[in-house]
Amino acid sequence: MSVIDPFEGVFGQPQVRGFLRASVENGRVTHAYLFTGPAGSNKTLAAYALAEALICGCGECDACRKVRRRKHPDVHYYAPEGAVGYLVDQVRDIVADTALAPIQASSKVYIVDRVDLMNAASANAFLKTLEEPPDDVVLILLGRTRESVLPTIVSRCSVVPFRHIPATEAAGIIAQQAGVTPARARIGLAACDGSITKTIEFVKSNERMEFRKSVLGVMGRLASMDSWACIEAARELVDLAKAPLDEIRAAQEAEIRENEDFLAKSAIRRIEERNKKALTAKSLESLHQVASIAASFLRDVLAVCAQSPELVVNADVMTAIEEAASATDEARIARAIASVRACSAAISYNVSPETCFDALLFELKEALYGSRSPYQACI
Ligand SMILES: [Zn+2]
To answer: Could you give the CA distance from residue 340 to residue 89 in angstroms, rounded to a whole number?
Structure first.
């Protein structure tokens, strides 16, 4: 029995926790899993917990800590590199990597996110490995629903269904884990698209909470901003979104320096490559957060317009929300929310973030307060 249970932190999923724990304890781990569940159901966290249990599981050693910090060189995480899903080349890279020997541990774990975004061609490149991976490899695939994953993939995996965690329960878990109020937890959830793990990190960081304030500040000033102010604000948003990357880059460089002496050149190269991808993913995540925070502001304005101020999440900027609500109407807000969604999609398609935010602020200003169509202020 382990000292620290790697599965303890898989909040809100008691059945999954019990199932995975028993599989490890009874030596019944299979070579391929498919975790299915909506965003925010803790699939990624559970995948890393299983990886930790497979790599060692004591919960205390350097290897276990590395897995938990998502830094272990033998635990690989992949997300789709193409805007609409996995590219065949990316899948071929994953397959080629599974054939390599582990770097530090005696086995390797591959966490492959969003396999619901794997089309038939990409899946075909993956099937043989999925059916018969090398002996030292365990594959953990993550997907939103079982139905959205190609049957050829589902049939080769042991499926583990995750339940939807209701927002109030998620806020409670975050409040407890991060030591913040449930109100702050809800604010974080709105910024992090419902992900519990990301929200815990977000609400604990003063820098991230400041970042949120700045985005809300721009949203609150929109009505009075001229064209130049919009351009400037767009640039400001990009700078803010990219600020945390410097810190991550520094940590990555320190990690390389630490390992340089006892790792082979090829292993270092693989770590560098993984770091580069992690940095890109973090940058995208941060840019998407700008959109999520803007959307949560707009939903709050809508709530006030609909006479339901108790639904407001960003209660700390209530004055700005009420001001916006008094100058626009529900149909206009719906258009504005659609613009934010389009902006988020454009970011995924690698359109330059300056261009995306620039266009977004102009569109929001026009949609909410523009003079093109007469409107009835709702309060
Ligand atoms: Zn350990």
So the answer is: 31
| pLDDT single digits (tens) 303-334 | 999 999 999 999 999 999 999 999 999 999 99
Tell me which residues have their CB within 5 A of the ion that is ligand 1.
Answer: 56, 58, 61, 64
Residue 249: which residues within 8 A CB-CB, separation 6 or more?
Answer: 279
- CA 276, 93, 62, 264 dihedral sign is negative
Looking at residue 9, the DSSP 8-state letter turns out to be G
Residues β-bridged to residue 141: 34, 112
CA of 26 to the centre of ligand 1 (A): 18
Residue whose entry in the numeric block shows the structure tokens 């030292």: 136
Residue 332 and residue 231 in contact, taking contact as beta carbons nearer than 8 Å: no
Span from the CA of 227 to the centroid of ligand 1 (angstroms) = 56
* pTM confidence score: 0.83
DSSP string, 156-209: TSEEEEPPP--HHHHHHHHHHHHT--HHHHHHHHHHTTT-HHHHHHHHH-HHHH
Alpha-carbon gap, residue 371 to 201, rounded angstroms? 41
| Radius of gyration of the chain measured on its C-alpha atoms | 22
- CA 66 to ligand 1 centroid distance, Å: 9
Give one DSSP letter per residue of 285-326, joined into a string: HHHHHHHHHHHHHHHHHHHHHTT-GGG-S-GGGHHHHHHHHH
- Per-residue pLDDT tens for 202-253? 999 998 999 999 999 999 999 999 999 999 999 999 999 988 888 888 888 8
CA of 161 from ligand 1 middle (Å) equals: 27
Q: Which of 17, 122, 28, 12 is nearest to 78 (CA)?
A: 122
Rounded CA-CA distance 356/363 in Å is: 11
